[in-house]
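Lecture 7 notes: from sequence to structure.
We start with the chain below.
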Amino acid sequence: MVAAMRSQCRSLLVRGLTLGVLLGACFAGVRQTQAQHSAVEYFKQGSDWAKKGEYDRAIADFNQAIKLDPNFADAYNLRGWAWNEKKEYDKAIADCDQAIRLKPDVANAYNLRGWLWNEKKEYDKAIADCNQAIRLDPKYVQAYDNRGDAWNETKKYDKAIADYNQAIKLAPNYALAYNNLAWVQATCPDAHFRDGRKAVENANRASQLSGGKEADYIDTLAAAYAENGDFGKAKEWEAKTIELLTDEKVKEECRSRLRLYEQGKPYRQEP
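Predicted structure tokens for the same chain:
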């Protein structure tokens, strides 16, 4: 899996879906003392900043919420999410730890921490946290997808495919799971798990669901066509990927794949 691009895509997942899950779990059982009322107001304001991508402002408000109510688990959880968006993973993990200590039965903190362990390449820890998230909420789609990423990185390709399929079963319009499944089917170093036809089908589905403008999904579509032997379309879609990108490092990764397709060779994940 191409780390830089996959991280960009997964970050969209956290912004677009996990924040909503986190917010949906908030405010239950908050005692309306004056201090806590003020803490909730800071929390709401921080949440609004987070939605807008203003993470420093969000963190400042979550800090105030926690100062007023040191047991405000959701404020730790969302501050951890904001630290994640700033790639301050150790700070994010520390906040998840505190959120879990205060509310050990809430799945989203485990899932967020699992995501963070993936970012730090500590895959066993990621799997353990995703397992706990799924135990607490067996229909937690993002936890299956996060765990699938960890299985893929640890070369447990059968388990990765199973988790991506489970995410799709639970959420048939969940583009990221289709994309990640197609990536394994197209680029797995073990031929037993590759399937060019299914990779094209799943990558097309991911691209359609995302509006056809997500560079990561188009890159996967190019890899799928290459695995299926259609190098003309592979070159076309990889060129489109490069057009959409702004990060020069990621562009160069895609250019290297484009050169492979020009030579009539598919792309493979590093074994």
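Points to note: The CA atoms of residues 22 and 158 lie 30 Å apart. DSSP finds 14 helices and no strands in the chain.
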